[in-house]
Structure formats: structure tokens, C-alpha cells
Specification:
five-stranded antiparallel β-sheet, FAD-binding oxidoreductase (chains A, B), homodimer, 4 domains, Uridine Diphospho-n-acetylenolpyruvylglucosamine Reductase, domain 2, eight-stranded antiparallel β-sheet, 15 helices, disordered N terminus, FAD binding (chains A, B), Uridine Diphospho-n-acetylenolpyruvylglucosamine Reductase, domain 3, FAD-linked_Oxase-like_C (chains A, B), Alpha-Beta Plaits, alpha+beta
């Protein structure tokens, strides 16, 4: 089809074509399809066009054009978000602004331990560029082969290394942002300390594109560790897992870079649907913890550290059993167990997902109490509880009773169970979204659990930076 | 004097007295004197009163009263700031709001590694409370015996442990803030991960009380290290010091918790004015680096690590000499050398101070280039260069030529030298205030070096949260 056939004398599209070229203004249903449905396939929207600018200046031009024509923009990176934050609404009036063509690694400065990357860089490419500079970029998560650093920043992504290195926010030193008025803010500083005014950087991070569009960032790098080692430990309960966490942090301090909890039912599901993923112990245990150490000295030192801390755990009756990966293959196999849990859940059937966090000291009580409430409300419901215990962050999911009909179960129970979980999260001073953001999925729940003061501060910031509401409307906060 | 004698039928003061009690509304010159001059004695202001509320609710009441009577408030903690951010102007119309009576440790949760403290808690008391819970609160700086955690948060204080633990911002998980409209935002979350909206916390941190008043905070704690060890290494130049930093970070990773540079002239000044502070080597070297390791295993392990990394440094020709503290007394003596530099500078006479940071990879060039420019502009000027090299943060100070008249020197050269330093900082993509903030001291310089886009974003945030401009006016940003 000749693109000009599509022209409807649409002044907005004409201006976009003039600014970034016809080839980068997608408007056929076939061309746009991949941008209109979110990764979990919960949302499908419509768009006036999908715009793919190639430079920061082109992004700024698009934002100014959208302003002049009063068109709302929905920024999108790798489209792997879990809360529908990058999917347009169904009106067909919004335009998707894809950052995928801004994929340059602009600079790497190993002596400063920084890398400057454009928003559309795929996370795995950032990791690779760091490694080529003999450095570690520690952000790591399941979607790393397709998610972009811009999306990681927009949602303040977490992942498996938060325990030592922090979230994406804590890994970022500086940003370049196109503001809602189409200006370019160059805040690409590679400084560990800078106290010269308000923290604009952290306001744009985690705002899911509702305050401006992140086009590039300076990210922190670290020396490559000499060794990374993985172990699995069998414990009786989440309470025991917390004791093990304390022992491990006292022994290893910042060398403990991963601490993931998996209930036996999680591993049972993995075994059921992926039998090649071998259960690591000769008998079943109620809970298994995956520990990872990153050591700057040597593999032997990491091994000694592991053995020492596990000995303490055995002596104190905290752990039943443990196995240390002897090589990369075994280490990969341990991580595979963890990473197959969501896949096994999907195979088992539709389920209800929660990405919650509570203070680490309360996790055990939270699991006990909430589990009891759910058992009462939905008899036979099977809890799939796993996640980043060291960060207080659990994927606290509910699976249909054995043999039950998932659709009927969700229809009857989803809303009530969400409420039980979220109310108990808030009672324990936790959060209803630890690492997945709000997007469009949790706007309503968030408005329900946040204080009026906090909502009104958030609205004041949104109005101040985006007075016309053109940046990703309907996401993060309901303007009422 | 009977306090009622002071009454001028001032409705604002009457309302304050009704809200927080007569004893906590200071209004005699003698009572107010300690609150009206900054720590460096650069600024002396006037105040309508000094208000000392005792609870968060009282702070909120004061803010509402100030709103009703259109009185501007100047929040103050320990009054140890270095940029005049807590000193009122000379008009006598502003009121100082002291947080000193909000000094409770509200909670400590060792299993969550958090402590909840009120803004007026003295930093050393926070450290002590953490230690009593068998935990480390790593923020440490010269004023720790009198500065408050609220002031540390308001200015995003740095100190000597940023290399591993980050600035005050990175040590904070949650805040309680009284907003400019006198509402209380309870954001006292103790979570490592929380992606439920805009990052209000980091907006208030570092805003120096211009967007609201921090009344309490949840701060991160860490396991107490098993050993802390200190060493001094003699090197030829800042360039060599950077090579040593790389060696140390590769060997020790996150166990390297301190890395401070001191030029020989700094130590010469210390020896001149504090002869009891012994120079640690048998011959003079151009630069001395103080290294600190915090080890979770043992003192022996830390010592081995030191010896290993110093051996590498000797093998690679990076270090001339090194000495490792054998006990706490020696370790204290090494830190004393570092901490006596500003005191020795004061003894030597008036001088020009800069608290700058540049990317770590550029520090060597920055020092070389800027030193040459200053030597040209002010022949004989003596450079006092020391600081947190591991963070890219230098106290880059200029002392009068030997035997010269400091007042005459400053009068002639201060403004020109400030401009040389700041312009070169910006040319190296650095910052004119790494850890001391803007206060009133650097409002003009900051406006000169920041981009119009950044200044306009900052103004938009200020207007959004404090539309009447009553929160610490004249600080951080000039509203023009």
C-alpha cells in the first residue's frame, strides 16, 4: 500500500512526517499492531499513529507538534511492562511514541564507572557494553533481552540484584528528558554527588512517561566481580528464611547480591510443567532460598564464605539442607528453577498476581495472616509465593483450587482476593506495587490506598509539569 | 523579663503561643541570637520570632498560622549548614522554625534494617541508637555532634562514607513532611521497593526546606562490620591516586568505604598549626590518600585485603609508600589528619572555599588545568586541595600567598577565582555544589551555570508546591 493513500489531510500526521520522515510514522493496522497490546495481553488500545523518532531532537519536535495539535502521547520502550503503562487507550486519538530507534551507547567511562545510553537501548545491550568495558551493569530481569533502559527508568524496574545494587533509580546518575513543552533538559551528569537544586532526575524516574519523556541516561557501573556463586538452602518457613537472610547479611554484607524465596508449591508447579528442571534436594522441604554472592576476591573466597554462613545456619537450626553450585551450569540451573515459576504458573492456568512489598521484618506475619484470610475466603485456593525476599518484595500469587475452573474462580474471587491482599499489605505498611509500577492496571487501587495528601501532591506535580495532560494520560494517577 | 511584656498584640505571635506554648516562641534578641547567624558566620539575619514546636502536629499548626498571617518560615536544624540555608534574611519579617525539639527515635527495626527518627535528632544520636540495635547508620560528617538528621536530609548531606553507602538521599527510605499548606504527608515507609507514583521523597530531600518541612524519616541501617581498617598511601599525583582507587575498588569492591585525597600542602598546614598531628611518613610525598575498608569477616581479612591491594599498587608503580593503622588509636590519628585540614586552613587565615565535583575520570585534568589558570590569575595563591576523591568531590580551596594579606587578597581575587573554578567545573560536566547545597550562598552562581530549562522546571515545582512562596524564600532558587 502506498503510504500516501492513508493520508486524510491530517495536519498532525503531516507535521510528524515532515519532522521524522514518512517511514517512521506508522499508521496501518498491521504496522501498528505490535505497539497496541501490552505484554500480558490485558490491554489492547488504538492509536492515531505510532511515531518512531530517531534522535532526541526529533522526540522534542514530535512533542511540540503534539502540543500544537493537542494530541496525547504514549511513550513506549520494549513494550514488556506488566501494568499496561505503555498501551494507548481505545479512543484512537492518542499517538504511541516509540523510543526504539534511540539505541546508541553514547559513551562509556570506565574510570568514572558510568555509561551514557539512549532510552531505546535494550537492557541486555547495556549489560554487554558494560562488560566490554570490563565493568558490570547490575540491573537484571527476565525481560532483559527486549526491555529498554528507558522503560526500566520510566517504571523504576527492580529485578534480581536490588539487594546490593538498588533499583533502576539507584543505578541512575543523570537523565536527558524532553519536557511536556517540547524542550530538552540535559541533565546527563555522571556525578555521585550534586546538590544544586531540586531532584528532577528522580521525579522523572518512575513517572511512567506522565511528566516527560526520558531520551537518555547516565547509569552507574561497577567493577566486574571475580566470582559469582549461587546456592540453594532448604528452610522450614518464611520466618526461617528471614533468619537465614540475617545470617547471610552479617557474614557477607554487601557481597550478598541475591536472596530469593520459593515455596515448595512453586517448585512443585515447576516440576509438574517443566520436568527437566530437577528438584535439587533428595527430599521435599517447605521453602527453598536461592542465595547469590558476588565476590571481588576469588571463587574460593566466595565458596568459603558460603560454607561458613551455611554452617552457622545449620548450627542455629535455621536451615535443613543446602547445595552450592559447583559451576556455571549448576548456577544457571538454580536460577532456572526460580525463573520457571511464572512460566509454570501460566501453564497451570489463569491466576491472580500481586507484586507487593512489606517491611522485611513483617513478611513472615504477612504471609501467615494473608494466607489464612485467603483460605477462608476462597477455600482450596493455592498460594504461589516467591520473590525477592531480601528486598521485602513478594510475588504473592493465587492459583485456582486443584482441578477447578480458572475463569469461574477468577470471576468469583479476583476482586475480593485483591482487596484482602492490598488491605493487608497496607495494614503492614507495605506497597501494592513494589516493582511493576501503576500503569493503567492499578490506578484505581492506588487511589484507594494512598492518602488524600499524597494524591494531591502528585496531582500538583502533574499539573505543574504537564498542564495540558498530554503525557501518557490515564496512567499512574487519575486526575479526577 | 515577663514574656507578656513583649507582646505587641501581634496576632501571628499570639496564635503561635496558643499553638505551641509561650516558652517555645522565642522573641528576645538574646533568646534568638543563636538562630540568626550561620555556622560559618557569613550571614546574620533578623527574625520576628524563633518557633520551637514539639510535635509534627505543632509544626503543621505553625505552618497554617504562618499561612493565615502571610509569614515566611525558615526551617532550621542544628544550624551547621555551610551555605546559609537556615538563616533568615535581614527584614525581620520571617520566622525561624526550629525542629530541635522533635528529637525522638520513634522506632528501630533491626530485622528490616531501618530506624525511624524525628527531624531534630542529632546525627550522633541516630548513629548511637543504631549501634544499640547492633546496626550501623553510616552517615558521618564533621558536624555529627550537633547537626540534625532533618538538616542532613534537607541538604542531602554527604560526608566520609558516600563511596559505599551513598548520600543522605540514598540512606532514606521514607519521610514525614508538613506541606506548605500545613498538611501532614505520612510517607514513613520502610520499603526497599515501592513504585506507586511520583517520588515525593526525593523531591523534599535536598530542597532545603523550600518545598515543605521534613519532620521525620525512615533511614536505612546496615549490619555492623566486623572490622574497620584505615591506611595511608603516598602517591605522586591525583592521577596516581585515581589509579590506586581503581586498584582498591577492583580488589575490595563494596568493602572500600572511604577514599580521601590530601595534597602535601594540606598536611603541611596541619603540621604548621597542629604540630601534635604527626606526619605519617619518613619523607614528604606530593599526595597522601586515606583508605578505609569495612569488613564483614574479620580484622585479619581486612588486613590481608589491604596488603594485597597495596602490593598491586607497588608492583604497578602507583604508590610510593603505605602505612596501615594497627589499632583504633592509629586509625583515629589518620582520620584526624584529614579532619584537621579545614581547621588548619582557618588558622592560616581567610580563604576561598569550593565544594565541587566532577566525573572521577576528569579529576586529574581538572586539578591540573584549574591550578594553572589560578596560578596565572593570582600569582602565589596556594591551593588547598583535599576531599572525597572516591566520590569525585573535592574541597578545592585557595589560600592567600605566603605572607600576604588575606582580606586584600580576597577582595581582589575572590570573585575572579570563583568564576575560574566554576567555569572549569562546568566545562568538565561537574557541579558547583557537591554536598553543601545552595542555601543563599550560591543562588546567583547556580542561576548562572544552570540551563534555562532546568531553572524553569525547578521554578514550576516551587510554584506548584509553595504557590505563596512562604517556605524558606530566597534559598536554592531565585524566583526572579
Amino acid at each position: 500500500m502506498n503510504p500516501t493513500d492513508l493520508s486524510t489531510h491530517d495536519a498532525f500526521l503531516d507535521a510528524c512526517i515532515a519532522a521524522i520522515g514518512d517511514a517512521h510514522v506508522l499508521r496501518t493496522p498491521a504496522d501498528m499492531a505490535g505497539y497496541l497490546t501490552d505484554w500480558r495481553k490485558r490491554y489492547t488500545g488504538q492509536a492515531r499513529a505510532v511515531l518512531r523518532p530517531g534522535t532526541t531532537e526529533e522526540v522534542a519536535a514530535i512533542v511540540r507538534i503534539a502540543g500544537a495539535h493537542d494530541v496525547a502521547l504514549v511513550p513506549q520502550g520494549g513494550n514488556t511492562g506488566l501494568s499496561g503503562g505503555a498501551t494507548p487507550d481505545v479512543s484512537g486519538t492518542q499517538a504511541v511514541l516509540s523510543l526504539a530507534r534511540l539505541r546508541a551507547v553514547r559513551a562509556i567511562d570506565p574510570a568514572n564507572n558510568t555509561i551514557t545510553v539512549e532510552a531505546g537501548c535494550v537492557l541486555a545491550d547495556v549489560q554487554r557494553a558494560a562488560r566490554e568495558g570490563n565493568r558490570l551493569f547490575p540491573l537484571s530481569l527476565a525481560a532483559e533481552g527486549s526491555c529498554t533502559i528507558g522503560g526500566n527508568l520510566a517504571t523504576n524496574a527492580g529485578g534480581t540484584a536490588v539487594l546490593c545494587y538498588g533499583t533502576t533509580r539507584e543505578l541512575c546518575l543523570g537523565l536527558e528528558v524532553v519536557t511536556p513543552s517540547g524542550e530538552i533538559w540535559n541533565g546527563l551528569r555522571g556525578l555521585r554527588k550534586d546538590n544544586t537544586g531540586y531532584d528532577l532526575r528522580d521525579l522523572f524516574i518512575g513517572a511512567e512517561g506522565t511528566l516527560g519523556i526520558i531520551t537518555a541516561a547516565v547509569m552507574k557501573l561497577y567493577p566486574l566481580p571475580a566470582a559469582q556463586m549461587t546456592a540453594l538452602a532448604a528452610v522450614e518457613s518464611p520466618h526461617a528464611a528471614l533468619k537465614l537472610l540475617d545470617i547471610a547479611q552479617r557474614a557477607a554484607g554487601p557481597l550478598l547480591t541475591g536472596f530469593e524465596l520459593m515455596s515448595d508449591f512453586c517448585l512443585e508447579l515447576v516440576g509438574r510443567h517443566f520436568p527437566e528442571q530437577r528438584y535439587p534436594f533428595s527430599q521435599r522441604y517447605p521453602q527453598v532460598v536461592l542465595l547469590e554472592l558476588s565476590d571481588n576476591e576469588s571463587e574460593q573466597h566466595a565458596r568459603d564464605l558460603f560454607e561458613g554462613l551455611m554452617q552457622t545456619a545449620f548450627d542455629e537450626g535455621v536451615a535443613h539442607d543446602a547445595v552450592v553450585a559447583q559451576n556455571l551450569t549448576e548456577s544457571r540451573a538454580f536460577w532456572n528453577l526460580r525463573e520457571h515459576i511464572p512460566l509454570a504458573q501460566a501453564e497451570e492456568g489463569l491466576n491472580i498476581k500481586h507484586d507487593i512489598a512489606v517491611p522485611i521484618s513483617r513478611i513472615g506475619h504477612f504471609i501467615d495472616e494473608t494466607g489464612a484470610l485467603i483460605a477462608q475466603a476462597a477455600p482450596g485456593a493455592r498460594m504461589v509465593v516467591f520473590g525477592h525476599l531480601g528486598d521485602g518484595n513478594l510475588h504473592y500469587n493465587v492459583q485456582t483450587p486443584e482441578g477447578g475452573d480458572p475463569r469461574a474462580f477468577l470471576k468469583t474471587y479476583q476482586s475480593a482476593l485483591n482487596r484482602i491482599v492490598y488491605d493487608n499489605v497496607i495494614a503492614h505498611q507495605g506497597t501494592i506495587s513494589a516493582e511493576h509500577g501503576i500503569g493503567q492496571l492499578k490506578v484505581g487501587d492506588n487511589a484507594r490506598v494512598k492518602s488524600p495528601v499524597e494524591l494531591s501532591l502528585m496531582r500538583a506535580l502533574k499539573h505543574a509539569l504537564d498542564p495540558h495532560g498530554r503525557m501518557n494520560p490515564g496512567k499512574v494517577i487519575d486526575l479526577g
